[in-house]
Amino acid sequence: MLYSNINEINKNKKKIVLLPHNNPDGDALGSSLALLFYFRKLKHSVDLISPTEYSESFKWLPGCKDIIVFSEHTKSLIKKKIADSDYVFLIDFNNYSRINNIRDFFLYSKAKKILIDHHPFPLHFDFMFSDSTVAATSILVFRFISKMNNLDKIDKEIATCLYVGLMTDTGLFRFPSVTSETHFIAGKLIKKGIDISYIYNHLQEKYNENKLKLLSKALKRLKVIKKYRTAYTSIKASDVDLHSYKQGDTEGIITYGLNIKNIVFSVFFFEEKEELPVKISFRSKGNFDVNMFSRKHFRGGGHKNAAGGTLEKNLSESIKYFLNIIPTYYNNLMLSI
Q1: Which of 43, 98, 124, 197 could share a disulfide with 21, CB 3.0–4.6 Å?
Q2: What does the pLDDT read at residue 331?
Q3: Dmax over Cα atoms in the chain, in whole Å?
Q4: 3-state class of 23 per DSSP?
């Protein structure tokens, strides 16, 4: 869909709702917050609604205090805001399963639905700003603002939010998805006066005691299957209960397996509660496509080297199911570089 078809947003004051996905990461939050500030500059009425709570490590971001997080207390308010909106932006996701708490509110809304996302295989919406070749949704938000001829509206706050999106979804600019455009945009954002050291320091892992204990549990359970160049580990519901889990406390666990020499595939099973489904994260190096792997076997998806999924089995059954699948991918894993 052409950018010109959305220019009506610039003409009159609108009611806009911004929706990131469940458990929003740095790119989802950065992109959403950047749009929040941008649309407010255009004098629109804007609400940013998160379907779930988000990690403590992002609560320093400008504008976070204005995020409406779904809960029983805010449920009726969120329903009304979505129902009354003129536009609903889906940011950093392209499937209804990523907004489960507010899915029905969204489906029954008469608002025009606008997708801004970089994941493959999107569903169809009224307006589509979708490109799975870019490193982050923040790049698409920058393009969106540029196509609206409003790059002058990007100030330090907007630039900070977009830069966080770039940093987090590119692994600090080290993933294969990084291109010259990624660095070009980063350079433009730096010129807006952002404090890179401040951002970097806030994005560094800050381990509290409970987070370290969860990591310790996961490392003790870490299994390496050298034959298949695969590592996997898990966190049980009992671990979560014992160590006062907070959103984001398991972030980064999956990378420990992937950092082992000769390992190209790392898997993390997370049993947050003693109920189904089990959440599963996948990371890979080289040519092994975890997006396709997750879509085929775990009702999930994501990117080629980073994806997630779920399974309607308990933890031990989920791991057993996974181990039964892995041998069929022997050639793919051996050829991954």
Answers
A1: 98
A2: 93
A3: 61
A4: coil
The two counts, helices (H) then strands (E), for the chain are: 13, 12
User: Based on the domain organization, do 59 and 175 belong to the same domain?
Assistant: yes
Alpha-carbon distance 212 to 326, whole Å? 29
**CA atoms within a 13 Å half-sphere pointing along the CA-CB vector of 17:** 26
Quickly tell me which residue has 């979708």 as its tokens: 130
**Bridge partner list, 280:** 269, 309
Tokens of 336: 């991954």
The model's pTM: 0.86
Q: Show the beta-strand stretches assigned E in 33-151.
A: 45-50, 67-69, 87-91, 112-117, 127-130
Looking at 160, 175, 203, the residue that finishes a domain is 203
Long-range contacts of 149-153 (CB under 8 A, 24+ apart): 150/10, 150/38, 150/42, 151/188, 153/38, 153/41, 153/42
Residue whose C-alpha is closest to residue 136's, from 115, 113, 163, 155:
163
Both tokens assigned to 318? 């989920």
Least confident of 6-10, 265-269, 314-318: 6-10
Report the alpha-carbon distance of residue 221 to residue 231 in Å, rounded.
10
Alpha-helical runs (H) found in the chain: 26-41, 75-84, 103-107, 137-147, 156-169, 180-190, 196-203, 209-220, 237-242, 253-258, 290-297, 315-325, 330-335
| Tens of pLDDT, residues 54-91 | 988 899 999 999 999 999 999 999 999 999 999 999 99
Same domain, 36 and 181: yes
pLDDT band at 2 (very low <50, low <70, confident <90, very high): very low
Helices 137-147 and 156-169: crossing angle in degrees, nearest 10, is 140
The answer on 213 and 156 residing in a single domain is no
Residue finishing a domain among 203, 236, 253: 203
CA–CA dist 35, 176 (Å, integer):
26
122 and 231 share a domain? no
For 10, 49, 248, 311, the CA distances from 37, given in Å and listed in that order, are 14, 14, 25, 38
